[in-house]
Structures are given as structure tokens and as C-alpha cells.
Request: fold
Amino acid sequence: MRSRTGREGMRGLGTAALAGALAFCLAGAARAVDEPTYVGASTCIACHSDKAEQFKQSMHGKRLPVVKGIDFEKSCETCHGPGSLHAAAAGDRSNPGFATIIDPLKLPPAEQSKFCLNCHKQQEVMYWNIGPHAANGLSCLTCHSVHQGHGPRNLKVENSNEYLAETETCLKCHKTKKLGMNLPSHHPVMEGKMSCASCHNPHGGESGNIRAGSVPELCGKCHAEKLGPFAYEHPPVTENCLNCHDPHGSINDRMLKQALPFLCLQCHKFPHTGTVNNANAYTSSALLLQRGRCVNCHREIHGSDRHMRFIPH
Ligand code: HEC
Ligand code: HEC
Ligand code: HEC
Ligand code: HEC
Ligand code: HEC
Ligand code: HEC
Ligand code: HEC
Ligand code: HEC
Ligand code: HEC
Ligand code: HEC
Reply:
């Protein structure tokens, strides 16, 4: 059994490789004999008036002439390649000329992306090459469309609120994150006031796709007052906000990963027993009553310029 599977596997591989090589040779031969040339958008319009109209309304249709100096007449073939043989085939798929037009959707994902990256070289997007989305077989066309793009970002998902369009794009795959965003304490993402892309770069990032070099730096962009630096730092805060918070939502107040006091007791197993002062404090009935609400006293829990125990006076 085992050896049969093995041999079949080998044979399958051999045939595929051979077919690939053949297709490559044939394409090469066809081109050498008859190279397609540029014919201009006015030729394409005759058969693709719908695509051409759509294109005129799209972000690329409006911006290519301005930003790249590519006017409408030249636009189609900038992306689809020279179209004389395709046009001459007049829609007959059995004519070898038909397939000389480039259909981006038929390219393998990595080729689709390379095609877009020819023009889009800003750092935000170039992270693509090192991101998890590229590594998992997504392409630019998973989320964007040139002809059917909606809104300024050419997203396939349509929503008049651009933040919601972005978030819905992500939730097509990351479905479990939607549950979190509906828990009692959450970032206002489903409310359309920010989006997954406020924190994540969909194209990839230096770490975990986030829009910053580290988690505290990311959170600090909107919550600067929590970041410090402080005269008295609380080490878990400077290390990683996610020691205590879940930015995707929580059943606990303030998106805490655990309810108080359990959150604190994970790391401070026996608080108020360490020093003489605290031994007194421990026996005080007032404190016993309040112990559960650690932040009633340790109010500057993210760090303090006033007190080493984060207790403001
Ligand atoms: C004489 C008519 C005709 C002309 C001219 C023409 N096309 Fe097409 N094209 C077709 C037809 C028919 C199809 C198949 C449409 C379908 O299956 O829905 C097609 C398909 C395509 C496809 C998809 C390819 C595929 O494999 O399905 C692209 C991309 C395309 N055309 C681009 C162009 C561009 C760009 C031009 C101008 C350079 C152009 N066409 C000119 C008739 C034409
Ligand atoms: C900026 C690059 C770009 C330009 C310019 C462009 N297209 Fe496209 N075209 C694409 C991409 C990418 C797709 C795949 C679907 C999508 O993104 O909407 C596509 C899809 C198509 C298809 C359908 C292919 C299919 O399989 O459904 C046709 C037909 C087509 N384009 C024709 C045109 C015509 C005609 C023009 C000029 C008026 C044009 N395109 C300009 C990138 C471009
Ligand atoms: C020929 C060059 C060219 C190609 C190829 C191209 N684009 Fe563009 N794209 C542009 C230009 C120019 C703009 C307008 C940028 C501006 O206004 O500054 C643009 C705009 C965009 C925007 C909106 C950017 C913004 O600032 O909101 C997105 C998203 C986008 N393109 C995605 C794609 C994708 C996906 C592909 C591949 C299917 C692609 N582009 C292929 C040139 C290109
Ligand atoms: C997982 C979905 C997804 C994929 C895949 C994706 N994008 Fe985007 N893209 C977005 C979203 C959402 C935005 C808007 C938020 C933002 O600016 O990052 C965006 C924004 C952009 C912008 C505007 C960025 C700016 O800084 O103004 C460009 C250009 C762009 N994408 C091009 C691309 C290209 C090129 C690829 C493929 C290499 C690609 N995108 C792949 C979702 C995606
Ligand atoms: C077509 C499906 C798909 C879409 C759409 C999609 N993702 Fe992903 N995403 C994946 C896959 C697959 C992975 C890699 C496996 C994993 O970590 O789950 C991934 C990984 C991630 C990661 C983990 C990075 C890491 O290093 O662990 C983040 C963050 C992420 N995506 C954010 C987003 C955001 C934000 C959007 C919307 C702009 C989005 N994704 C849209 C499929 C998708
Ligand atoms: C307030 C900022 C913020 C928002 C909004 C946000 N995330 Fe995240 N997300 C993070 C941080 C921080 C991490 C951890 C990154 C790391 O470990 O380096 C993360 C991790 C992830 C991961 C990988 C690890 C995991 O938990 O599975 C995925 C996937 C992800 N986010 C998807 C999403 C999606 C989808 C949305 C929108 C529904 C979203 N995020 C909204 C900050 C955010
Ligand atoms: C793009 C801006 C932005 C980023 C980045 C951001 N937040 Fe927020 N955060 C908000 C907004 C907006 C609110 C809601 C404020 C309100 O409702 O008054 C919020 C609220 C919160 C709250 C309070 C929730 C409550 O129940 O009161 C916590 C805790 C929080 N964020 C933690 C984080 C953490 C941890 C990070 C980093 C992983 C982060 N935030 C990144 C914008 C951001
Ligand atoms: C040691 C645990 C811990 C860490 C680590 C931590 N926090 Fe908090 N955070 C808390 C607690 C506890 C509260 C609730 C305080 C209260 O209810 O008075 C809170 C509340 C918040 C709030 C909402 C309350 C407000 O004052 O607006 C924000 C925003 C916040 N944290 C952001 C951050 C950011 C940003 C980081 C990382 C730089 C971070 N936190 C790291 C424990 C932590
Ligand atoms: C992830 C672990 C962790 C969590 C969770 C945590 N802390 Fe801390 N905390 C530390 C570390 C590490 C120090 C530095 C001093 C030490 O090693 O005890 C510290 C210091 C302190 C100090 C100063 C005490 C001293 O000895 O200097 C106080 C007060 C404190 N934490 C209160 C809290 C409270 C209240 C909470 C819950 C809201 C909390 N901590 C959650 C790790 C944590
Ligand atoms: C009623 C106010 C109050 C409450 C509530 C409170 N503390 Fe304290 N805590 C103090 C005081 C006062 C000190 C001693 C300050 C000093 O010695 O400088 C202290 C000291 C500490 C210290 C450092 C010394 C030691 O003995 O470990 C830690 C850690 C600490 N508290 C954690 C906690 C945690 C965790 C909780 C919740 C379970 C909590 N505190 C609740 C007032 C309080």
C-alpha cells in the first residue's frame, strides 16, 4: 500500500511538472511568431463598455492620468497587456490569441500581488512581502478590486462608513473577533468609530501586523497618558499592555483580561504582607473591606510621578 501511494505521488508530480514546462514552451513559441501590440481603450470599449464605464468611475480611472500621466486611452493595456490578438479573436476562446490578454484573477496569488506592487511601493504596503497574509495565499485582490472597488480604498466590501467597510473585510475570515467586539467592554469598532485597521496594517507589519514597533507604542498613539515615562513605572505596563487588557473586547470592565482583584493577584500573591507597614495595613478592617478594589488606592496603576506604590495623594 505504502509503496503504491509513493509511486503515484511521484508520477503525479512528474506529469504536472511536464505539463507546466510544455505550457511555458508553447506560450513562448506563440509569442515569438506573433507578438500582440497595443490597440488602445477605444478598441476595448467596443466589447467591454461596462468595464470601461466602471473603470472611469473608479479610483484608478480618476487618478492614473493625474498621478502617473496614463490617460484613459492607454489605461486598459497598462494592466492587461497589449490586446491586439485578444481583440482580433473576437471573443473566441479557442483562438490562441484570446488568452494573450492578462486576466489578473487567473494569475497565482503571488503574481496578482506583484502586479499591484509594481506601482504601489509605499512602506505601508511593502510590508506585504513579510506579512502573514501573503504567506497564507491571500492576494491584493482578496480585499481590493480595481473595477468593483467601493470607496477611496477600492475595497470589495461596500459600506458608506469606511471604517465599517474595513472591519467587515477582516471579519469575513477572522469571525471570532466579532464576538469579542460585542462583549460589554470593547473598542468602538462595530460602532464604526474605528476599525481593525486602526491598529493593524492589513498588509503586514513588523510584529503581529500592528501599526507600531511594539504594543505599548501602538496603544500609546491614542492613550498617551498611560504610556509614561513615569518616575515610578509599573513593569508589566511598560512591558506589554496585553498583560492586563484584551484590545478585542472583554466581559470585564476596561477590557481587563481578568476581573479585579484576581488580575493583580496573579503576580502579587500576598499583597500587604511584605513590610511592617503593610502587616498593619493587612489587619485593618477598613482595608479588608476594600482589598478587592485594588485600584481604589493604587489609582495610578499605569505608573506614577508621585508615589512608588501608585497611590496619588
Ligand atoms: C471583439 C470583442 C472584444 C474586444 C475588442 C476586446 N475583448 Fe476582451 N473579451 C471579449 C470577450 C467576449 C471576453 C470573454 C468575456 C466573458 O467570458 O465574459 C473577453 C474577455 C476579456 C478579459 C478576461 C479574460 C479571460 O480569460 O476571461 C479581459 C481581461 C479582457 N477581455 C480585456 C480586454 C481589453 C483590455 C481589451 C482591449 C485591449 C479587450 N478585452 C478587447 C471580447 C473582446
Ligand atoms: C490598474 C489596473 C487596471 C486597469 C487600468 C484596468 N483594469 Fe481591467 N482588471 C484589473 C483587475 C485587477 C481585474 C480583476 C477584477 C477586479 O479587480 O475588478 C480586472 C478585470 C477586468 C475584466 C474582467 C476579467 C474577468 O475575468 O472578469 C475586464 C473585461 C477588464 N478588466 C477590462 C478592462 C478595460 C476595458 C480597461 C480599460 C478601460 C481596464 N480593464 C483597465 C485591472 C485593471
Ligand atoms: C499603473 C500603476 C498602478 C497599478 C498597476 C495599480 N495601481 Fe492602485 N493606484 C495607482 C494610482 C496612481 C493610485 C492613486 C494614488 C493617489 O491618488 O495618490 C492608485 C490608488 C489605489 C488605491 C487607493 C489608495 C488610497 O490612497 O486610497 C488602492 C487601494 C489601490 N490603488 C490598489 C491597487 C491594487 C489592489 C492593484 C492591483 C490589482 C493596483 N492598485 C494596481 C496606480 C496603480
Ligand atoms: C486583508 C485585506 C487586504 C489585502 C489582502 C490588501 N489590502 Fe490594501 N488595504 C486594505 C484595507 C482595509 C485598507 C485601508 C486601511 C489602510 O489604509 O491600511 C487598505 C489600504 C490600501 C492602500 C492605501 C494605503 C495608504 O497608505 O493610503 C493601498 C495603496 C493598498 N491597500 C494596496 C494594496 C496592495 C498593493 C495589496 C497587495 C500587495 C493590498 N493592498 C492587499 C485591505 C487589504
Ligand atoms: C481571506 C481571509 C482573510 C482576510 C479577509 C483577512 N485575514 Fe488576517 N489572516 C488570515 C490568515 C489565513 C492569517 C494567518 C493565519 C492566522 O494567523 O490565523 C491571518 C493572520 C492575521 C493576523 C495575525 C498576524 C500574526 O502575526 O499573528 C492579523 C493581525 C490579521 N490577520 C489581521 C487582519 C485584518 C486587520 C484584516 C482586515 C483588514 C484581515 N486580517 C483580513 C486570513 C484573512
Ligand atoms: C485597539 C487595537 C486593536 C484593534 C481595534 C484590533 N486589534 Fe487585533 N490585535 C491587537 C494587538 C495589540 C494584537 C497582538 C499583537 C501582538 O501580539 O504583537 C492583536 C492581535 C490580533 C490577531 C492575532 C492574534 C489573535 O488574537 O488571534 C488577529 C487575528 C487580530 N488581532 C485581528 C483583529 C481583527 C479582525 C480586528 C477587528 C475586528 C482587530 N484585530 C482589532 C490590537 C487590536
Ligand atoms: C486608534 C486609536 C486607539 C488605539 C490605537 C487604541 N485605542 Fe483604546 N480606545 C480608543 C477609543 C476611541 C476608546 C473608547 C473611548 C471612549 O469610549 O471614550 C478606547 C478605549 C479603551 C479602553 C477603555 C475601555 C472602557 O471600557 O472604558 C481601554 C482599556 C483601552 N482602550 C485599551 C487600549 C489598549 C490596551 C490598546 C493597545 C492594544 C489601545 N487601547 C489602542 C482608541 C484607541
Ligand atoms: C498591570 C495591569 C495593567 C496593564 C499592564 C495596563 N493596564 Fe490599563 N488599566 C488597568 C486597570 C486595572 C484599569 C482600570 C482602572 C480603573 O478602573 O480605575 C486600566 C484602565 C485603562 C484604561 C481606561 C481607563 C482610563 O483611565 O481611561 C485605558 C485607556 C488603559 N488602561 C490603557 C492602557 C495602556 C495603553 C496600557 C499599556 C501602555 C495599559 N493600559 C496597561 C491595568 C493595566
Ligand atoms: C503581570 C504581572 C503583574 C500584574 C498583573 C500586576 N503587577 Fe503590580 N507589579 C508587578 C511587578 C513585576 C512589579 C515590580 C515590583 C515587584 O517586583 O514586585 C509591580 C509593582 C507593583 C506595585 C509597587 C509595589 C512595589 O513593591 O514597589 C504595586 C502597588 C502594584 N504592583 C500593584 C498592582 C495592582 C493593584 C495590580 C492590579 C491592578 C497589579 N499590580 C498587577 C507585576 C504585576
Ligand atoms: C485601602 C487602600 C488599599 C487597597 C484597597 C489596596 N492597597 Fe495595596 N497598598 C496600600 C498601601 C497604603 C500600601 C503600602 C504603601 C507603602 O508602604 O508605601 C500598599 C502596598 C501594596 C503593595 C506593595 C507592598 C506589598 O506588601 O506587597 C502591593 C504589591 C499592593 N499594595 C498590591 C495591592 C493589591 C494587589 C491590592 C488588591 C488586592 C491592593 N494592594 C489593595 C493600600 C491599598
User: Anything to note?
Assistant: The chain has three domains: 36-102, 113-199, 223-297. Residues 167, 170-171, 174, 177, 181, 187, 189, 196, 198-200, 207-208, 210, 215, 218, 247-248 surround heme C (ligand 6) (CB under 6 Å). The radius of gyration is 29 Å.
